[in-house]
Amino acid sequence: xxxxxxxxxxxxxxxxxxxxxxxxxxxxxxxxxxxxxxxxxxxxxxxxxxxxxxxxxxxxxxxxxxxxxxxxxxxxxxxxxxxxxxxxxxxxxxxxxxxxxxxxxxxxxxxxxxxxxxxxxxxxxxxxxxxxxxxxxxxxxxxxxxxxxxxxxxxxxxxxxxxxxxxxxxxxxxxxxxxxxxxxxxxxxxxxxxxxxxxxxxxxxxxxxxxxx
Length: 213
Description:
Layout: H1 5-9, H2 37-41, E1 48-54, H3 57-68, H4 75-85, H5 87-93, E2 97-100, H6 105-111, H7 115-127, E3 136-138, H8 150-157, E4 161-163, E5 173-181, H9 185-196, E6 201-209
Parallel strand pairs: 1-6, 2-5, 5-6
Antiparallel strand pairs: 3-4
C-alpha cells in the first residue's frame, strides 16, 4: 500500500456530515448531511461529488509525487484506497461509464502521462464500469490552476473541453475522475461539456479534496 502504519493513521477520510451535492465536509463531527452555502445558491452541473480523503498529510505527499515526480506506480494504491472508501457512493450512481479529466496534449507531452487516466483505469476495473479514456478532450491550453484564484480558475477552464463523439456519452450516467477537487472549477466545466453533449448525469470522484482554511 506504500503507507506505513503511522502514515495510515494520519489520513483523514471524508465522512458525514457533508454537503450531499459537492461533498464538502463540515467541521462538526455530529449532525446530518445538508447543502453547503455555495450549493444552496447555485447547484453545480454535476449531480454529486465525493472525495475519499482530505488533501493533507501523507495523501498530499503521495499525490504530489504521483503527479509531479513521475511516480506512476502510486496510481494503484491511491486508486484502491479511493475505490474502497467510495464503493457505496460509486454503486449508488449506477454509472454506465468512467471518464478521466483530460490533459491538453502539450501538458501530456511534458508530463508523459495523465494521472487521471491512471486512476480511472484502476477505479473502473474495481467497480466494473466501462472506461472511456478519450471521450472528453481538452481542446485548448489552460494555465495551471494551482496558481490562480477561484474566479480566475473558472475563466481559465471556460470552453476548454469538448466531446468529439457525442454518441459515446449520450444518455449515459458518467463518473468523472480526477486526483484532487480544489474549487471544483475544472470538474464543473467538464460536467457542463458532457451535459451539452447529451450525458444524462455526471458524478465526480477524486482521491482527495482540498479544504479552505
